[in-house]
């Protein structure tokens, strides 16, 4: 059955257990970082960092907020990256879980096109040209476990289950949170399998927290969409 | 919410148009997801309690039963009633505490005025340390204090440690220190 | 913790002050969040807006070191508005006790004060007998349950905190009066019967020259509001190390013996003298006075040390234990003070990194150079073991011999630890110890075995081992305790944690009959109510008696079924001291008739049978009740002669609002930190704690109101590192998240100093300077204090030169002072004065 995450940022403490649990399970190496004047580190997602808690300090209605946004692939229900790739050996959708999976064959893809196609700015290219991102811990999920980031979350920010169950949970929680935060919203719940609940304007958390129009203008709307429209002639176009 | 939804549609509409065209000529069926095996499948499973803060979270340790017999995974124990599987970043990185190339793996000795460590055997270290303790203790032992009261102690040896040890280790350690006559017995709780 | 982690979910109002639980005890937020989802309010009081603050309903900033003023204002608010729990306060606390006529308090000083001698660390001391209660002919304190007597604790409390007005408190703390009121209002709602408020504190409270009294102030509030003993209440110290509860229970501290028995003083020349001194006597029939059992625990401890060598005739080996001078102090800071003064030759740093963890680390590091030898046992090379090649140290000038022994990681061995909520939990061995590393227990066992052999050889041959010329023919000095210490904790020649765990629990040494039931010699004692003072039982730590019995290893239990009261006690999961009691002082969760104050979240309730309005049988349900006696009253409201007061560890059985046992006064009083930014204490003429501990070597300088060091500094931790960072800095995943030493400061301060976010700056105190990366943040704000502006900065204390290998990141404790609290001698690392400048 199609699986979804529900990420309730209103109760996230920014502990980053999820960020490390992801590296632990996937045996991903650490990046060499510096303190850049913030607790957020590494500064961005990378080929070896699939999960990143983004942090922002924002004064909203005269009250200071420290916003935490555990960023990761949204496993879109109709994923642009998958469509752009047109190569199910490289990018496929797991029929059981709905996970969008990148394989070693992503090396054969036009990485920039894939990256540009993502409305959430998620995939990252490695040195050898393969592309990586969150894989929903598909191996765990197929074996009855929850993704590592969900298991490790202390507060209930990270939730995982059947899509309908997660949608129900998200809507219920949204209704509760609205009383305190009238601007609370679920981010693109109908289109993604990673449903975020935010208390404030989503752009305050991160530029690409919701599907980004600006990204579309730079990327998908021109190059990729055109290429998609051209169908069989895509390769010619690229050359 | 509506606004966000609309924004998403703006993105996907372009791509959706693409799908309509491409489905004419391409097979978009994903490759069959083959049943994946967990890396922990054949590992020995033991439970532990996290060694960092004092919440006392349970974790499961997966140790390879083949090859070097080392740890391949440590994650939160979902059946533990306190943490229910949750771990903070320190707890989540427990594997890297154990399987760490920076760990000390041999007793080392630094001679007076030397600028380097040298590896030594445990037997040598125990003998040498035991002699040091005995020499210092015996040379500085106070049977009575300045007031003439019986004190049976040495104040020339001090110990700090350790909240990082198990209860049983703490107990035998303090028993040893007190038998040796130390009163300078302290640890982390004081700071 | 009087309560435990899961119990946080039962709270109606959670105050997090003196800790940053979301950052440093992240899993506690599982239960803080659960409480909040059920409607609880979260209050965060901290100098800096933290991860905890980010989740709070109310955040209030206060200047470091002004917690007593802040909380004293809350006591006044609660008393003025009559929001205290009247029934609880009158029945269960010493609010009604009459204080003797010698007690007085004038301009910041209590009666009985004498200034300390020059050069002595203690700046002053009190004759505590001046603070005693008035007692009747039987020695029972006189009481006025109406709380009206002008000499009763309640009236004195009112008088004492009358000075703590909102305006004065605000002048001191820098917290606005609006924010003070918000916190006071929200928290004092828990005074209502059936409501519970809890406090989560940590080193943000203990690391001050007034640390103990900060906690006392909160304890007073908890008693006034009826929050002790109830679900979702209590005074909860969030302990920072996985087994710091256990290492304290087992007395790796100079002033105690296992199970919080008192350390032995030179004047207590016999076991009888010692037991008499520490066994309190109460003639009040309503008081259980649990410590009257003291000799059972001390004798059982001696039996566990010396086994059959401990006999009645030799005082159970009492004289073999070392004794401290009556006025001596041998605490952490005293060790490094003595070491710096060349008085210590040998040093064991076991699972510790004092070169970074202790206050005033430069003094510590210089002290290490004076040692003849050091043994350093750890997982990783550290700043302590490698001090001889640290920054600025020339190895060719350092005489110290250093032995560095590799310890195994916790998952590579077996044994138990006990968490902050007193849950003792067993751990199992996963992999074998890496390389030649060995479990600490193994190392201790082998080392002492080797030492024993040396003394044994000397004793039996009458001559020394040939290598050991010094002791030749002496047989070793005073070998008895070494030779007689029971040391049979092995199986097939290897250290066996189970054998020690059983020794800690304790054995029957002889066949014993207790209450008509027979127990065989050699069997494990079921619980500490069976321990004896005649040598017929042993127990290495009486509070652990019951943890490993003939029924098995209780700490290894994994039953996930909750108790019938369904408040998260999980009584068959692991084991908690004492007696598997999960909430201490739980008898205060019921009214004098034994009925829970809160019917939904009850902890214990009396379920005995009754006849004609009188209880006829004794039965409690729920948690293991404190003491287990009948309630104080019958169902018809008549008093029972056999009822007992709930605070069973106190001599008189009452919660102590007035605490005549502390070094610095029976009521907490605000004093400024030893290094402070203000010249005046707005509450009295006494600027700093008149009994603070201040060291005076050339490495112990202090700078107060010194224009060179104009900003308040404090230390804290981050989620990704732990303590000195020794168990996190060698780990790439954690270093990725928090790679460098940093200093957090307000945008205003950064502007003042021309500092940009992310650039390296110098933070300096009168003791040292440390390079840090600046984090310029909205989360720090300047304080308005006494009409002026005070800036505060904060630094994490996780770094040190050894890791990362750049040697560029150093310890925050180079900046801090070892001046400390007179009760605990914990150094004041949470408030000191610094400067911040561009590099």
Task: Outline the secondary-structure elements.
The complex is a heterotrimer of chains A (239), B (191) and C (839).
Chain A: E1 3-8, H1 17-26, E2 52-60, E3 63-71, H2 80-85, E4 91-93, E5 100-102, H3 111-117, E6 124-125, E7 131-132, H4 138-142, H5 148-152, E8 158-162, H6 163-178, E9 185-187, E10 194-198, H7 202-205, H8 213-218, H9 220-230, H10 234-238
Parallel strand pairs in A: 1-10
Antiparallel strand pairs in A: 1-8, 2-3, 4-5, 6-7, 9-10
Chain B: H1 2-25, E1 44-49, E2 58-63, E3 71-76, H2 89-92, H3 94-98, E4 108-110, E5 118-119, H4 122-140, E6 142-144, E7 150-160, H5 167-180, E8 182-186
Parallel strand pairs in B: 7-8
Antiparallel strand pairs in B: 1-2, 2-3, 4-5, 6-7
Chain C: E1 13-17, H1 21-24, H2 28-37, E2 41-45, H3 51-54, E3 58-60, H4 67-80, H5 86-92, E4 105-106, E5 109-110, E6 113-115, E7 124-126, H6 153-161, H7 166-173, H8 177-188, E8 197-201, H9 203-206, H10 211-224, E9 235-237, H11 244-249, E10 256-257, E11 261-262, H12 271-278, H13 294-306, H14 332-340, E12 346-350, H15 354-357, H16 361-368, E13 373-378, E14 401-406, E15 415-418, E16 423-427, H17 440-461, H18 480-484, E17 490-491, E18 494-495, H19 497-505, E19 512-514, E20 517-519, E21 548-549, E22 552-553, E23 575-576, E24 604-606, E25 610-611, E26 614-615, E27 620-622, E28 711-716, H20 732-737, E29 742-746, H21 747-753, E30 760-764, E31 769-777, E32 783-785, E33 788-790, E34 792-796, E35 832-838
Helix pairs in contact in C: 4-7, 4-8, 4-10, 14-16
What is the overall number of helices of chain C? 21
| N-C termini distance of chain C | 43 Å
Q: Provide the low-confidence segments of chain C as ranges.
A: 462-467, 469-473
Major sheet of chain A: 4 strands, mixed
Structural account:
- The complex is a heterotrimer of chains A (239), B (191) and C (839).
- Chain A is of the alpha+beta class and 239 residues long.
- Helices cover 31% and strands 20% of the residues of chain A.
- Chain A has helices spanning 17-26, 80-85, 111-117, 138-142, 148-152, 163-178, 202-205, 213-218, 220-230, 234-238, and strands spanning 3-8, 52-60, 63-71, 91-93, 100-102, 124-125, 131-132, 158-162, 185-187, 194-198.
- In chain A, strand 2 (52-60) and strand 3 (63-71) form a beta hairpin.
- Chain A is globular.
- The model of chain A is unreliable at 216-223 and 226-239 (pLDDT under 50).
- Chain B has 191 residues and is of the alpha+beta class.
- Chain B is built from 5 helices and 8 strands; from the N terminus they run H-E-E-E-H-H-E-E-H-E-E-H-E.
- Chain B has helices at 2-25, 89-92, 94-98, 122-140, 167-180, and strands at residues 44-49, 58-63, 71-76, 108-110, 118-119, 142-144, 150-160, 182-186.
- In chain B, the strands form 3 sheets. A 3-stranded antiparallel beta sheet of chain B has the order 1-2-3. A 3-stranded mixed beta sheet of chain B has the order 6-7-8.
- Chain C is an alpha/beta fold and 839 residues long.
- Chain C has a 6-stranded mixed beta sheet. Chain C has a 5-stranded parallel beta sheet with strand order 3-2-1-8-9.
- In chain C, helix 4 (67-80) packs antiparallel against helix 7 (166-173) and helix 4 packs parallel to helix 10.
- The longest helix of chain C is centred in the middle third of the chain and has 22 residues, at 440-461.
- Chain C is globular.
- Chain C starts with 12 loop residues before the first strand and ends with a strand.
- The model of chain C is unreliable at 462-467 and 469-473 (pLDDT under 50).
- The chains are: A alpha+beta (239), B alpha+beta (191), C alpha/beta (839).
- Chains B and C meet through strand 1, strand 2, helix 2, helix 3 and strand 4 of B and helix 11, helix 14, strand 12, strand 13 and strand 14 of C.
